[in-house]
Amino acid sequence: MEHRNVRDWAPPGWHWEVLPSGARSLVRNPGPVVDPELVWWPARGPRPVQREPAPLEVVRRRIREEDEHVRRYLVALEVMTYRSWQYLPGPSAIFDPQPVPYLWVFTTRGPGPRPHH
Question: What is this structure's pTM?
Answer without folding.
Answer: 0.81
